[in-house]
Design a protein that fits this description.
CATH topology of the largest domain in chain A: Multidrug-efflux Transporter Regulator, Chain: A, Domain 2
Number of helices of chain A: 6
Helix content of chain A: 55-70%
Strand order of the largest sheet of chain A: 1-2
CATH architecture of the largest domain in chain A: Orthogonal Bundle
Largest sheet of chain A: 2 strands, antiparallel
Oligomer: homodimer
Chain lengths: 131, 131
DNA sequence: GTGGGCGTTCCAGTAGATGGAAGGTCAAGA
DNA sequence: TCTTGACCTTCCATCTACTGGAACGCCCAC
């Protein structure tokens, strides 16, 4: 399967497939003309990657998950641990963003947003005790 | 004021101050020996940047906010618009992360996480209809 | 044979720093 | 006076996860 077909089959950009080969995630064989030749197994791995990435796992987590996926002797504990770490990271990010949101909402609420130059947002940014 | 003092005064890493000069955010004068010479105004600008960055504004937003901050003819509407755009972006990110969190929580909940190899997380990643 | 749509490689750029190498400057102490 | 150490300088590389583009090769249909 050429790279274009593999891209369509996985809904991943062709550029991304080349990148994944470059970093050793999915290494297709080559045809005689030098074109990449994606096997069905390669496509499964790419789909796996596509879903793991869309859940926000880093490339290195994906590499690990893929190796667990292909390892018959894995334990579900190992997998769960990777996912749990990732979930915790996401929760940290949410907490952080919610805090930023709260501060911004307050600043925006206080700003009349008209033609005049005085602005609580800029004041908040220029004085620590106002943020 | 040397760069080290400016770093302490703003709680920004020295490397960051050099970077901000490089991208034209805060350009201190130079002493005779070539050392950077941060003025009080530079320090104010750096503090402003530090707070805007910690609220998650991009560097380009910071550049804009800084120019509004220094512009007597600005309107608070302009400032509010920048902040509102940023708030919307943060809300988008929160929504996205919350969705990831929900999916991950479900997968993790379903995984027994013991010594056995069968694992709903890997199954979820390998089959679209399970995610 | 030629045009267009594939494919290839390699290099550069994104955001926002951060790390490190190689070397210059300065003040204090022996 | 010399040296030590803390500071400063520039420049280059690295990180994440791609993405864009140039320059070129391959293949099929007309």
């Amino acid at each position: 399967m050429n790279i274009g077909e593999a891209g369509q089959a996985t809904r991943l950009p062709v550029k991304t497939l080349r990148y994944y080969e470059q970093i050793g995630l999915v290494r297709p064989l080559r045809q005689n003309n030098g074109y990449r030749d994606y096997s069905q197994k390669d496509v499964y791995k790419l789909r796996f990657l596509q879903r793991a990435r869309s859940l926000g796992f880093t490339i290195e987590d994906c590499r690990l998950l893929l190796s667990l996926y292909e390892d018959d002797t894995r334990t579900s504990r190992q997998v769960k641990q990777v996912a749990t770490r990732h979930l915790e990271e996401i929760e940290r990010k949410i907490t952080h963003l919610e805090s930023l949101r709260g501060t911004l909402q307050q600043l925006i609420k206080d700003c009349h947003g008209d033609h005049r130059p005085d602005c609580p947002i800029l004041e908040g940014l220029s004085k620590a005790d106002k943020v």
